[in-house]
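CO-FOLDING WORKSHEET

Operator: S.A.
Ligand of interest: VIB
Run index: 228
Mode: holo prediction, single chain
Checklist:
[x] sequence pasted
[x] SMILES validated
[ ] output reviewed
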Amino acid sequence: MKFSAYLRQKVEGSWQASFDHPFVTGVADGTLPLDAFQHYVLNDSYYLSVFAKVQALGAARATDMQTMSRMAFHAQGTYEAEMDLHRNFSVRLGISEEQKANFRPAPSAYNYANHLMAVAYTGTLGEIIAALLPCYWLYWEIGERYKGVQSPEPIYQDWINAYGGEWFGELVQEQINRLDALAELASEEEKRRMEQHFILSSDYEYSFWQMAYTLEQWPYAEHVAVAK
Ligand SMILES: Cc1ncc(C[n+]2csc(CCO)c2C)c(N)n1
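OUTPUT RECEIVED:
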């Protein structure tokens, strides 16, 4: 069995919980409150800026030019495609410059980003890909599930469309193949660490929906609002 297939079966429970999360089903059927989506967008912009940095650190860790160039391309893709999407959502959701300037990432977004950064600075390229892969792969599966679905909320429809396209499927498959190739060369010990990172990122993906849905904040966050 390929290492990617082995990892995929390990996270079946947590990915299923993500598919069934009211944030995800609420995007598709339009029942998600817009303030939860706004909380998601603000936190996701922060998350993506770290994600692109981790992809770039993966490029730096590569031992061949082809991999280095592809990882750098992916980092640029995150910056351009995802940031474009967010700029667009920010305008349509009426997120103000002041809101962005005063924004502090919620605990779950911050923890997830820190997990990726820790792997980027301490792990091998195989470990970095294993930590990044659930972000690609889980979103691709969500995009596949909701292909053809028409959400009553046009903003949500654009979000669904972003992850259902063929170009995105190719990027995901490229990273799955990279994971399998790196796993072939990895020791049992390194593969065990790759598995841990993949599982932890999958759990953080679930926490990210929950964070958005519950409008998660730091304790005492209201003091910041009062002080303004
Ligand atoms: C919490 C969170 N997880 C995954 C994604 C999706 N995503 C982020 S970067 C990237 C790779 C290519 O751009 C993908 C698929 C997201 N937006 N937010």
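REVIEW:
Residues 44, 47-48, 51, 77-78, 81-82, 135-136, 139, 171, 205, 208 surround VIB (CB under 6 Å).
The chain has one domain: 3-227.
[x] output reviewed
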